[in-house]
């Protein structure tokens, strides 16, 4: 098995969370298997979440933590994003990170008629926690957040994305968390 450069982002804004445990479990197992791993916690990052100007003509300079995020993403062959679903979407700070750092010339090329992704040939795995059961997510929410992440965010910059969901994260049944961590450990071992 060849080694990969893996960037793991814990996208939960709290100090302690199931999402953090999933991210750290993946990173630990991938390292044990010989992969190069960089791990960042959204909680520890300091930046202004507001894109502010509303166009790409006037862009705020990236704060050091956002620069490090971009460098880690550029370095990686595989991104692992662990995030909760809140109110049908991403936590505000994670959305702010994307708004601020997914910029033209850095993540996608706007010189043609249509934007072209700049991260083609790379992969991503989203570890998504939610309180919505799978059937509710699929039939009533139409997998909207999964579609957004797979196509409109990560796919837009070229990352071929797979999503692994863990529900009902706030009130798991006995044994669920142990099973979920085992699933994530297996994904980390395979760099999948």
UniProtKB/TrEMBL annotation:
<protein>
    <submittedName>
        <fullName>Putative NADPH-quinone reductase (Modulator of drug activity B)</fullName>
    </submittedName>
</protein>
<dbReference type="GO" id="GO:0003955">
    <property type="term" value="F:NAD(P)H dehydrogenase (quinone) activity"/>
</dbReference>
<keyword id="KW-0560">Oxidoreductase</keyword>
<dbReference type="InterPro" id="IPR003680">
    <property type="entry name" value="Flavodoxin_fold"/>
</dbReference>
<dbReference type="GO" id="GO:0005829">
    <property type="term" value="C:cytosol"/>
</dbReference>
<dbReference type="InterPro" id="IPR051545">
    <property type="entry name" value="NAD(P)H_dehydrogenase_qn"/>
</dbReference>
<feature type="domain" description="Flavodoxin-like fold">
    <location>
        <begin position="4"/>
        <end position="161"/>
    </location>
</feature>
<dbReference type="InterPro" id="IPR029039">
    <property type="entry name" value="Flavoprotein-like_sf"/>
</dbReference>
<dbReference type="Pfam" id="PF02525">
    <property type="entry name" value="Flavodoxin_2"/>
</dbReference>
<comment type="similarity">
    <text>Belongs to the NAD(P)H dehydrogenase (quinone) family.</text>
</comment>
